[in-house]
Amino acid sequence: MNHNETERQQDRNEQFAQQLLDSYFLFRSPLPKTGYIQENKTSLQIMDDLMPMLTLSTETIVAYMTDHDYSTTTEQDGSVVWAIWRQV
């Protein structure tokens, strides 16, 4: 595979990663809403949920989350997770 083909493949993978994350977060919100329940997750949990479709890096997930106004919160056990609300 030459350099241009490698770049095109990377672009396709990055584009698919964005589409996959958009689909995953379609019924999720960074803010509480009526009809939504809190469903906090770590980057690793999100990665595990999406792994059957594509292996994502934590950097890709963090960039997506911050670009879409998700913030972190601290659980009672002290662990840090993404604050996510999911439509029920």
Describe the structure.
There is one protein chain. It is elongated and about 50 Å long. The mean pLDDT is 95. The strands form 2 sheets. The protein has a 3-stranded antiparallel β-sheet, with no helix packed on it. It has a two-stranded antiparallel ribbon with strand order 3-4. The chain is 45% helix and 16% strand. Strand 3 and strand 4 form a beta hairpin. It is built from 3 helices and 5 strands, in the order H-E-E-H-H-E-E-E. It is an alpha+beta fold.
Mind sketching the topology for me?
Elements: H1 3-24, E1 28-29, E2 36-38, H2 43-50, H3 58-67, E3 72-74, E4 80-82, E5 85-87
Antiparallel strand pairs: 1-5, 2-5, 3-4
Brief summary:
This protein is 45% helix and 16% strand. It has 3 helices and 5 strands; from the N terminus they run αββααβββ. A 3-stranded antiparallel beta sheet has the order 1-5-2, with no helix packed on it. A two-stranded antiparallel sheet has the order 3-4.
